[in-house]
């Protein structure tokens, strides 16, 4: 008796590739045990030292940060809470490869670009419940015991944006590791709101960097090392992001922002307008949860705004028109309205 009907069985049989296998490993933060508690005020930096695994490549598409996210009894996670405010990646020699400030804003920016179906599918692991029934899921945003959370890195080298396998076995590991990844925790006000009038806090526990490795045989690696010994190189193209902040004055309706950047291969520019400072919101309920005034990452610019009562109102601070200028050339030629 066959489990699959003959009509569904492909005639073209594809053989497995000998000598290549995948395995998973967990990298714990340096100098801390697995049950260490990280908060915004104490132990507020995660440091992962990624070893130079022998004969291995990192599959960044299936690698992520995993942790248990806890709130105080009166704390409620803000919509799509971003516990990290800065990402710093260094080589084994201390060279800075990536330094992304305002990392939390970048995460929200790319999260907003996802489809509703993707947000719904990822709601359990990312704790972003904006696309699902808030009334049914609001109580889950407060959890003193903690919730298992997955964070996909927005890194050009070790994140989902990397298109190639990362050859950690070929990286110079003079310090005992190939990369050092540092994540700085965000302030409490941008991660949790308060359900009463007392300050709320959050913490991370059982933190690990879950990595998938593609391991090749000694014979394959010997061929690669032979080529490297003869002067060959392993190119690893990647993209990264840089943040430029400008404070807009409250006076007037027209603002000019100057950006000084030395990048020679710029592909995209994203601009958002948000409050310059943010204080922790109090007396948060499921009705107020998605309101603009209760979301630290609710960007300005749209013509409609969700208020605390749960109703939509016409915004008075929307963007009317904009234009980019590089040198003496405008993009587009006339302001976009």
Task: Reconstruct the topology from this structure.
Elements (H helix, E strand, L loop, with lengths): L19 E8 L17 E6 L5 E16 L3 E3 L6 E8 L4 E6 L1 H10 L3 H11 L7 H4 L9 E5 L27 E7 L6 E3 L7 E15 L1 H12 L74 E3 L5 E3 L7 E5 L2 E8 L1
Antiparallel strand pairs: 1-10, 2-8, 3-7, 3-10, 4-9, 5-6, 5-8, 11-12, 13-14
Considering the chains and any ligands shown, give keywords for the structure.
single chain; 337 residues; mainly beta; 4-stranded antiparallel sheet; 14 strands; 28% strand
Short description:
The protein is mostly beta strands and 337 residues long. The chain contains four helices and 14 strands.
Describe the fold and architecture.
With 337 residues, the protein is mainly beta. 11% of the residues lie in helices and 28% in strands. The protein contains 4 helices and 14 strands. Strands 1-10-3-7 form a 4-stranded antiparallel β-sheet. Strand 5 and strand 6 form a beta hairpin. The longest helix is centred in the middle third of the chain and has 12 residues, at 218-229. The relative contact order is 0.20.
Query: Could you tell me how far the N terminus lies from the C terminus, measured between alpha carbons in angstroms?
Result: 66 Å
Shape: globular
Let me know the largest β-sheet.
Answer: 4 strands, antiparallel
Q: Overall pLDDT, averaged?
A: 85
> Helix and strand string, N-terminal first?
EEEEEEHHHEEEEHEEEE
Please give the radius of gyration in angstroms: 23 Å
- Total number of helices: 4
**Total count of strands:** 14
Helix content: 10-25%
List the strand order in the largest sheet: 1-10-3-7
- Structural class of the helices, strands and pairings? mainly beta
What is the beta-strand fraction? 25-35%
- Return residue spans where pLDDT drops below 50 for at least 5 consecutive residues: none
